[in-house]
Every structure is written in C-alpha cells, then in structure tokens.
Amino acid sequence: MIKTFIYKTFSASMALLVLFSTVSFTVEKHFCGDVLIDAAVFDTAEKCTSDSYELKAAMDCCKDTIGVIKGQDELSVKTFNDLDFDQQLFIATYAHTYLNLFEGLPQLVIPHENYSPPNLIFDIQILDQVFII
User: Fold this and answer.
1) How confident is the model at residue 32 (pLDDT cuts 50, 70, 90)?
2) In contact, 72 and 22? CB cutoff 8 Å
3) Mean pLDDT, all residues of the chain
4) Is residue 32 classed as helix, strand or coil in its secondary structure?
5) Where are the domains of the chain?
6) Which of 38, 48, 85, 116 is paired with 131 by a 20 to 30 Å CA distance?
7) Distances (CA, A) of 82 to 3, 78, 115
8) What pTM, to 2 d.p., does this model score?
9) Residue pair 27/67 in contact by the 8 Å Cβ criterion
10) Is the separation of the CB atoms in 7 and 24 below 8 Å?
11) What single-letter DSSP state applies at residue 78?
12) pLDDT at 78
C-alpha cells in the first residue's frame, strides 16, 4: 500500500518537474512612482487610468517592468544510432525478451471433452445402501 503510494507520488512529482522545467512565462508589473499598481502573469498589467490631478502628475514616473522566466529550450533527443554498441545490444536484447515474454499458451487438450456419461437407470448407492462417510 505504502509502496504504491510512494511510487505514484514520485512519478507525479517527476512529471511535474519535467513540465515546469520546460515551461516559460512572463510576469508583467506596472508601477506608478514606487507603488505597485498591478501585476499579471498571463495577461497585460492594468495601467493607471484615473482623472485625478495627482495621478496625472505622477504619470510621468509610471513604468512597466517585465520579468521573463525562461524554461529549458534545448532538449536532447538521442537516436538508436547515437548509442554505444553495448547500449544498443542491451536495448535490443531487452526488447526481444520483453516481446517474447507474453507468448500465448498452446491450447490445452482435454481428452474427455466430447464424452457423454451413460444414462443412470438405477442409483446403485441407494439400492445397495452404501454411502461414503
């Protein structure tokens, strides 16, 4: 029970690690002065849109910052010919044994398959009063 739970947890965490290591995204932030107005991950950040005189005066010092978090771009893909001879031999042997592992069993021969028992005319055990105890 615990072994399957650990196995499934480890498998899920490795899948998430691969997913998050290859995903890249941007974080966009909008500042008015030193005040953070909006931050967005998948959308554009909201700008300062107010009619007040103070914010219009502060519009000159508004700035947008964009932080890019890059994932892994280069994934190495190896073909069978890129491997050493020992690795190729191991993979070929493993594939051969795995594919031949699940061969079907020969059909079982049942010699009395078409045999029909004789009709019972008398129950001999009852007539002779012989019972298995």
Assistant:
1) confident
2) yes
3) 82
4) strand
5) 27-69
6) 116
7) 36, 6, 62
8) 0.40
9) yes
10) no
11) -
12) 82
